[in-house]
Amino acid sequence: MPEDNILELGRHSLAHVLAKAVTELFDNVKLAIGPAIENGFYYDFDLPHTITETDFAAIEAKMTEILKRREAYTRKELSKADALALFKGNAYKEELIEALPEDEILSVYYTGEDFADLCRGPHVENAQFLLPWAFKISSVAGAYWRGDENRPMLQRVYAWAFPSKQELKAFVAAWEEALKRDHNKLGRSLELFTTAEVIGQGLPILLPKGAMIVRTLQRFVEDTEERRGYQQTMTSSFAKRELYKISGHWDHYRDGMFLMGDPAQFEEPAAEVFALRPMTCPFQFQAYLNKTRSYRDLPLRYNETSTLFRNEASGEMHGLIRLRQFTLSEGHIACRPDQLEEEFAGSLDLAKYMLKAVGLFEDVRFRFSKWDPNNREKYIGDAAMWESIQDTMRDILDSLGVEYTEEEGEAAFYGPKLDIQIRNVFGKEDTLITIQIDFQLADRFGMMYTDADGQRKYPYVIHRSSIGCYERTLALLIEKYAGKFPLWLSPLQVGIVPVQEENHAAYADEIAAKLQAAGLRVRVDHGGGTMGNKVKTFRQELAPYIVIVGDQERDSGTISVRVRTGKQINGIAPEAFIAACDTMLKENALELIEEF
Ligand SMILES: [Zn+2]
Ligand SMILES: [Zn+2]
């Protein structure tokens, strides 16, 4: 049996043991569902007692006790009516059973004589096979029945489970390290961002240091794109419903949009209904439509640092990763068919360049996201067009030597995508950058060009981002570097400490002025603390360099530099330090120079 299946089998079998343990420990427990998941399993319960961390040890002990009973997992088949009788009073199981066809033969699994759960299986044959396993209840959280916020809230108990104690131990150690890097904690303690309940979920506030990192990234992206032939547009954040009707967003993406005004008017044809933009495409298309285009005008590359609004479900919000408002460099390239491969290659090269500059390139994978032919109402256009454009895109990816996986059902509603996927510190995967080929929206918007043969034709449109949304990128960078950003991205690059305020403040300011003139972000600590305390404060702030100046430095016109790695070098000429910083900034260096 493949290893994945063994993991799933053991984890799911343990979910039954968890359910049995909770049933034995507490009164009036109603069981919902309990699947295996990555790294473990969970079970959803409805019970009067509120399960908290203080219950975990008792539940774990009860689970071990149950395993030691060495009970068999026995499958019994029964009719729908018998199953309903067996689970009478449990509305969750009743609902699951009712949903099945009338003549369906159901299976229940008994663990011992006294505990049965509705399940398809498979499971281990006997609980004793799970005795060498190691498990640990990790958390408990509210979860709506069937993920529907209008249904009852259940208590979901999560556990980690591995086939051996060593594997669990290694996993927990890695998890604890991840917790230290979690952007949602570290980003707040480093004062990069905060949230306010009164503003709302998924709407973080970037504090000056976080905003500084994002601004640095934005400038880098905009400058790079300009050098690569992009023209920047500035378009509005909302538009009339009619625009989204043309683009298809109104019919295919409305649940994801924030509509403005009185809901009673939303379907009223005469009303003026506005919606915040979930994407920039329909807006930039209007720039294309501003004048008649000829084949000589193509490729036309537009970019925009664009703030977008998407109505994510409230359960989906997480720090800077899942947001209701975010900003990204959105670009659209209109090109002729003979330019498609080169423009696609250019977009991919730009994304790779950005990923390398911020140090995330090693962490990504490429996903070729295709439509789902069995779910056609999600997409516009016919099957033949989809298959043909997907073949074209596969040819381009292959000719560019991209290593990718193909996944159905992940395409945009108007075309297939190359998604650049990245995992956060807890292993959860998200799309960071996407490059899409669109063969349909130009038609919908009437975007055309006059070809060399005098014919009016539709261009291909490439939709692309180049670094992903800035907030998500910031989150990934916090976790990647545990807050120890490369010099070019550090909000504070050099902290300056005068050894004694009265004797060295003037020299410290003189050095600060030189560094600032060279484009560095510096701050002198003129506070009343000791030198040791000032150094400690800058260290806690994770400043890449701390410059210390006392008698010796002032008298010789030098500085002492403490690198974030811990190394200290004395008697450096300020110009040598500035030259080293300059090199790092120009090259977007990921490592700090330690020799001057
Ligand atoms: Zn089961
Ligand atoms: Zn687009």
Main sheet properties = 8 strands, mixed
Number of DSSP-assigned strands: 28
CATH topology annotation of the largest domain: BirA Bifunctional Protein, domain 2
Structural class: alpha+beta
Report the end-to-end length measured between terminal Cα atoms: 58 Å
Helical amount among residues, as a percent range? 25-40%
The molecules bound to the chains, other than polymers, are: zinc ion
- Number of helices, where a helix is a run of at least 4 consecutive DSSP H or I residues: 18
Averaged pLDDT: 94
Q: What is the fourth-level CATH superfamily of the largest domain? A: Bira Bifunctional Protein, Domain 2
The dominant shape is globular
Order of strands across the biggest sheet? 11-15-16-23-20-19-17-18
* Model regions low in confidence, pLDDT < 50 over at least 5 residues: none
CATH architecture assignment name of the largest domain: 2-Layer Sandwich
- Give the C-level CATH assignment of the largest domain: Alpha Beta
| Tally of domains | 4
Determine Rg (CA atoms, Å): 29 Å
Describe, in plain words, how this protein is organized in 3D.
- Strands 11-15-16-23-20-19-17-18 form an eight-stranded mixed β-sheet, with helices on both faces. Strands 1, 2, 3, 7 and 8 form a five-stranded antiparallel β-sheet that branches. It has a five-stranded mixed β-sheet with strand order 25-24-26-27-28, with helices on both faces.
- The two termini are 58 Å apart.
- The chain is globular, with a radius of gyration of 29 Å.
- It folds into four domains: 161 residues, Threonyl-trna Synthetase, Chain A, domain 2 (Threonyl-tRNA Synthetase, Chain A, domain 2, 2-Layer Sandwich), CATH 3.30.980.10; 249 residues, 2-Layer Sandwich (BirA Bifunctional Protein, domain 2); 38 residues, no CATH class; 100 residues, 3-Layer(aba) Sandwich (Rossmann fold), CATH 3.40.50.800.
- The chain contains 18 helices and 28 strands.
- The protein is of the alpha+beta class and 596 residues long.
- The site of one zinc ion has 4 residues, from loops.
